[in-house]
Amino acid sequence: MAGFSKALVFPVVKSAFHRVCAGGPVYLSLVCLCGLLLLIGIGAGIHALFIAGSRHAYGTYREIPVAILISTYIYFVVASTGICLISSIGHVFGVRGLMPIAKRSVYLAIITILAGFLAIGLELENPLRMALYNVISPNFSSNIWWMGTLYSFAMIFLTVEFIFLLIAGHHKKAVAAGLLGVITEVAANSNLGGVFAMMHGREYWYGPFFPPYFVISAMMTGCAFIIFFVVLAHRINRRPLDQPTGRALMIVGKLAMLMIAGVMLFTIWKILTTAVGGDAEKAALDALVAGRFAFRFWGIEILGGMAIPFILLLVSRAKNIMVMFAAAAMMIFCIFFMRLDMVLAGQIVPLYLEMGVAEYSGLHAYTPSIHEILVVLGSIAFCVLAFLLGEKVFDGFPQPEIEQAAEPSAVENKEAETAP
Question: The pTM is what?
Answer without folding.
Answer: 0.91
